[in-house]
Every structure is written in C-alpha cells, then in structure tokens.
Specification:
single chain, alpha/beta, Rossmann fold, 5-stranded parallel sheet, two-stranded antiparallel ribbon, 14 helices, 11 strands, 48% helix, 15% strand, globular, disordered N terminus
Length: 335
C-alpha cells in the first residue's frame, strides 16, 4: 500500500512541477532571441539560478557570456551589475564604502555594485586575492558588512564569474578552496558554423538591437526555488551521487587503481550537495518532478571539473579532470 501511496504522491508532484515550470519555456524563448547557439550555457545559468548557486564560466572572449547574463537579468526583471576585474580594483569598489556628507556632518553608506540580483564578475582572475575574497564572502554569506553594519543582499542573487583561459600573464588564479564556492564551472566552446552565420546576420540587422522583454518576476524565481527542492530524489539516486563523489576520493575502492596516482585530492562534500541540487534543478528545467540517473550524468562534469585536484603525473600525461570524470562515470554502476 505504501508503494502505491508514494507513486501517487510522485505523480501529483510531477503534475504540479510540470505546470509550475511552464515559465522556463518562456524564458528560454526570450533568451534565444539574443543568445544564439549557447544552449548549454543558458541551461547552466538557469540551473544556478534555480538551485541558488553561482556559476564560473571559462571561455575565450566574444562567446556571449556578458550578453547571456544581461539578457537573463532583463527577462527576469532583475537588477544587473557588471564588475570588470582589474589588478587595481579594491574591495570597496565592489562592496561599497562610507562617504562623508558635509551637509549633515555624517558618514553615509554608498552601496557598491554587489547590491544587484545578477552580478557579472568579468575576468575574476585579473584581480588580486583581497578583491576576490570580498566577492566570494558576499556569495557565501549573502550579506555585506560596511563599517560594522551588515546589509543583506537582494534575492535572487546570482554571481556569474568569467575567466579567460588564454592569457595568464598578470592574472591571479583562484585558490582551490575559493573555486569550490561555485556550484558549476561551465566551459564554453565556439558556436557551430550555422549558429555563427545567425550571429553575423543578427548583428548586421538594420532594424537595430533585439529587445528582451521581462517575462518572469524575481518572486516567481524564489517560488520556483522552493519547488526545486521538492523534486523527488530516490535513495538509489542519492547512492549514485555518493558513489561518484567517493570515487574521486578513493578510486581504488571502485577498481579505478590507475586513477589513484593522477588525483591529488577528490571532490568536497559541497560537490555532493551541488550534484543533488543541480540535478533537481535540471529535472525542473526538463519539467519533471523526479530525478533520473541521466540528470546526474548531464550535470556531473559542470559540478565536478573544478573540484578534482590533479597531480604532476596527470599533467605530464595531459590527463584532465574531464578524463577522470569520464572514467568514473563509465565504471560507477548506474541505478
């Protein structure tokens, strides 16, 4: 009887989520007006937003990273702020500072660009550690302290940080512990020929720029976030997540002895949480009320690629974290 009751519950939940996630199609249609061919990136942005996590994007310049998050902010009717990271940037340039008001003879707070719904931290690895840590603290705590006063940040709050993998001169690489704060690290590739043809035509359009309309309100996103957590996840799927994460720490227990000398450290417990939450958000985007193993496999690379440390031996053999994740996914038993 219990089995019947639970399957009825899942059916009801599935129906409820199918209806509640209808706005995803609207959002996608609106974003596709301006962002051509970057379906993977747009989906990952939505996962980050629905799972209340931040996204680190890596890709060469000109792949519509700024355009994508700006369009998303407009479509959701949220505030957008772009921070260009440079070596001379100070924490106060991001968080805000106290400014003296001569009329009232008192100091007043001037809030920085961090007080927005969508933050684009452009080329985060261009700024020194002091500035990076100011941003990462705000990401983790969802609040900012300016001169003994604490100010909560607006919800929804999504940080999209970009880093350029080409130039490494004059950059400050993000420490591993700080990279771990990002739920997803998305690697963006060049568009296909046909997609790039559409990009050219779009940019040469004599009718001017494409206008993105607000189709969703920030309150709708906050409601959707609660629903995402309700998406059903079976114990077998939980076990699958744990097996994948533990295989990065103790590969020999999964008959992956050849990976042992290649991994310097495995994924953190944050990886397990992020895998579960991102899989629920992915199921929600696909308008489903339950998580299937394919959801885990779809987002696994984005969640784990920045959380696995490689040894010098791996680098000498040109083995990447991608190769290691592929090996693990091929061996760990799918429920």
């Amino acid at each position: 009887m219990e089995q019947t009751a639970s399957s009825t519950d899942i059916r009801e939940l599935n129906e409820r989520i199918h209806q509640a996630s209808a706005f995803i199609d609207l959002l996608m249609m609106e974003l596709n007006k301006s962002v051509v061919g970057q379906k993977h990136m747009v989906e990952r942005l939505l996962i980050g937003m629905l799972a209340n996590g931040h996204v680190l994007l890596e890709g060469v310049p000109g792949l519509a990273k700024t355009l994508a998050i700006k369009s998303l902010a407009t479509a959701i009717n949220g505030n957008f702020a772009r921070i260009q990271f440079t070596p001379d940037l100070l924490p106060a340039d991001i968080l805000g500072t106290m400014v003296y008001n001569p009329q009232n003879h008192e100091f007043v707070v001037r809030k920085g660009p961090i007080f927005a719904n969508f933050i684009l931290a452009d080329e985060i690895n261009r700024a020194p550690a002091k500035v990076q840590s100011a941003l990462l603290e705000a990401m983790q705590e969802r609040q900012v302290t300016i001169s003994n006063e604490t100010y909560p940040l607006a919800e929804p709050f999504l940080v999209l940080a970009t880093q350029n993998p080409i130039e490494q001169e004059g950059t400050y690489e993000l420490p591993e512990a700080q990279v771990d704060r990002f739920m997803l690290k998305v690697v963006i590739t060049y568009p296909k020929k046909e997609e790039e043809r559409m990009v050219i035509r779009q940019n040469l359009n004599p009718n001017g720029n494409i206008k993105i309309n607000p189709v969703v309100q920030p309150e709708d996103i906050l409601k959707a976030r609660k629903l995402v957590r309700e998406v059903y996840m079976d114990e077998k799927i939980e076990q699958y997540i744990l097996d994948i994460v533990f295989a990065t720490r103790f590969p020999e227990e999964y008959k992956l002895n050849k990976l042992k000398p290649l991994i310097s450290y495995g994924a953190s417990p944050r990886a397990s949480i992020s895998l579960a939450l991102a899989a629920k958000a992915y199921a929600f985007i696909k308008r489903r009320g339950y998580v299937i193993p394919e959801d885990i496999r779809a987002i696994c690379h984005d969640v784990l690629r920045h959380r696995i440390g490689l040894t010098y031996e791996a680098e000498a053999e040109n083995i990447t974290s991608e190769n290691i994740i592929n090996e693990i996914l091929n061996v760990v038993e799918v429920p």
